[in-house]
UniProtKB/TrEMBL annotation:
<dbReference type="Pfam" id="PF02622">
    <property type="entry name" value="DUF179"/>
</dbReference>
<dbReference type="InterPro" id="IPR003774">
    <property type="entry name" value="AlgH-like"/>
</dbReference>
<protein>
    <recommendedName>
        <fullName>UPF0301 protein E5988_09760</fullName>
    </recommendedName>
</protein>
<comment type="similarity">
    <text>Belongs to the UPF0301 (AlgH) family.</text>
</comment>
């Protein structure tokens, strides 16, 4: 049986001392990873002062009864591009299933469906994404910086953004308070 090292459907947790302030305590939901590269959506930080109603207004969608949920910092690439991570009970024209755990949509039809009350039962919205070219994430995983953990959709939909980093380490059996800020040297 062939084993895969691809991380689709897992979460990347930034290790203390990752060296890039944009990723301090970052939690990234890996939505696609293969030999061509990877894409993930940050779910560990929210954008201060920006809510779903603001985003809907910018794209001329009436919010209806939709809650003014916070918007997540999805990553440093294309920070004006929106993504919806959501439960698998809804699918639109560009929806991709992420390892049978959750789904990812990147077009306005997902936002319209949410605003009209006919969208997925669970969702979060992010602006931007984290992307890696072919082999780049694989190489990063061999150095100090990221820990990949497996968790279910509860990480996204049942855990507050500020608690996801700690939850991820706990799922891996690690107390994040005990982590150092650099890797060992031989």
């Amino acid at each position: 049986m062939e084993t895969t090292t691809f991380l689709t459907g897992q979460f990347l947790l930034a290790m203390p001392g990752i060296g890039d302030p944009r990723f301090d305590q970052a939690v990234i939901a890996v939505c696609a990873h293969d030999e061509k590269g990877a894409i993930g959506i940050g779910v560990g930080a929210q954008i201060a002062g920006l809510g779903l109603h603001d985003v809907l207004e910018q794209v001329n969608i009436a919010p209806g009864d939709t809650p003014n949920a916070p918007i997540h910092f999805g990553g440093p690439v294309e920070t004006r591009r929106g993504f919806v991570l959501h439960s698998r009970d809804w699918s639109g024209q560009d929806t991709i299933d992420v390892a049978g755990k959750w789904a990812l949509s990147g077009t306005l039809d997902a936002l319209r469906a949410i605003a009209e009350g006919r969208g997925p039962t669970q969702w979060l919205v992010a602006l931007g994404y984290a992307g890696w070219s072919a082999g780049q994430l694989d190489a990063e995983m061999t150095r100090h910086g990221w820990l990949n953990v497996s968790d279910d959709a509860g990480m996204l939909f049942e855990t507050e953004a500020a608690q996801r980093w700690t939850r991820g380490f706990n799922a891996a059996g690690i107390d994040p308070r005990l982590l150092g800020t650099e890797s060992g040297h031989a």
